[in-house]
Amino acid sequence: MGIRQYTLYMAWMVAVVATLGSLYFSEIRGFIPCELCWYQRILMYPLSLILGIAAFYDEYKIKKYVLPLSIMGIFVSTFHYMEQKIPGFAAIKPCTQGVPCNVQYINWFGFVTIPFLALTGFVLITVILLIKRR
Hints:
single chain, mainly alpha
């Protein structure tokens, strides 16, 4: 038994914390999300709902629906983080309107930005779901 029986709940909690964190940054702190931030939200918000329902019903077959979202989130978050931290990526302009994607609203410890937090959430969800094999 052990920790593996709680993998869906752990993944759900990561998704909920990531969702609430993004809402905190935009609605309470007033940070306007850029285009890539919206893509990350589009990939994370459904995970909060899907993983919550799956955890409630102990439905592990949900992984085939959740993993593609979290893996795509890893790619989007990695690209966004590299755009913020690597000067060469600033030349690639996926964000054409609104807030530029290279804006760093937070920069904790010199490397923790909002895309880094999203990347951490997507990686945790992916790893947690891969722990459970049924």
